[in-house]
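Hey, quick one: can you model this chain's 3D structure?
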Amino acid sequence: MKIFNKSMFALLVAASMTTACNDFGDINISPNSPAQPSTSSLLTGALTNVGGVATAMVPCLYTQQFGDVTYIEESRYKTVNFDYAGFYTGPLNSLQTIIQLNTDAITKDAAASAGSNANQIATARILKAYFYLNMTDRWGDIPYSAALKGNENFTPAFDKQQDIYTDLFKELKEAQAQFDGGKTVSGDILLSGNTARWKKFANTLRAIMALRLSKVDATKGKAEFVAALADGAFTSNADNVQFKYLADANYEHPLYNNYITTNRKDFAVSDVMVNLLVKLNDPRLAAFADKATGTNTYRGVPYAVFPVTWKAQDVSLAATSMRAQNSAANVLTYAQLLFAQAEAAKLGWTSGNAKTLYEDAIKASMQQWGVYTDAAYASYIAQVDVVYSDAKALELIGTQRWIALFYQGYESWAEWRRTNYPALTPAAKPLNTSGKIPRRMAYPTSEPTLNKTNYDAVVARQGADVQETKVWWDK
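Sure thing. Here's the predicted structure for all 475 residues.
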């Protein structure tokens, strides 16, 4: 695996050209070229990748929130190996460059035109942690401490996921405390340079991470969870972090692109999700799915059923309201944090009331999706399959969290793997070897050849490079 810093490479090339052509003075220097990369542009470019993480469809298929409509493959676990090189050469490289330019004594003053050095560094550190968390939760052990070293190391070793988590806790805690009262960061298309929102995002992410440790290191998980809340996490839906797409063909919502621009309609809400919401008379159904145009009824696409006996008009596509060209994608929400707090209370990590937090989480989710009424909420939480029971608390919290995390695929997949709620039946005719729902993604196919020594070492330590090998916290 070749992980390198493109900016460093460009600077080396520029330096070599200057040395070779120094007899020509300034003739080869364009007066219109910037002296150093624009940190504002680098941040914007890095942030565009948040949308891809937030709207990824494969994990939504794993958790059976969605199903394939025509090509019944990914819901049957066809793809085993997934590539992560784009993270290293794309957003992570850009964010590391932002940190370097705002740290180096030679470049920091010029970089400060895009926001105070401290604010830019803190923002970049939080965003780096967000991407690294997504990656390690998908692949397990990944290159981390030895990555992003430019030409110093083209074949980085893999860090243990446990060590990555430890460092990400540190990074997020330090970064949220690093913001100063200086100039607002420019180029921030996610939170508009609002430092208070970035702090809450970092602390909420820490709390979600901490709960991941519930079965593998509850002591550390509890300490980190309590510390994250103390530093200030989300307190209402106003704090929700969403990635907003544009009413522009060049950067439109992926489902709009699939449904409208290309007219493919590859994915629909699964019958697993639809049937449960119908059973519960859940008001969020209308916010999640449209009625099938052919029958004017809610009908989830049969999950992973092959061969296909239906067409797109026969099943419930994602709701029009959530897949407009400029729809927003949920990245991290208040409801998600409340469910985490409810579980933490049940586990004895906090003194909170698990029942109250569970019900508040459902309420916040309904409000988030724009379907809340006092009457509908009161009726909903009183149902036998919803009403809080201490004996079934973890199952109830897990199931309702799965509903609330609709189309937050990677978060939903991580929570399902950790809790095994709700109980999901694997595809009847799987295309993978084990026939089981994937627990991780396998490394890029290039790793065994381009980074063989380190690849062999991580496989020996973590386990076979297959979908069934569990990541560190998945017990």
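One thing worth noting: DSSP finds 19 helices and six strands in the chain.
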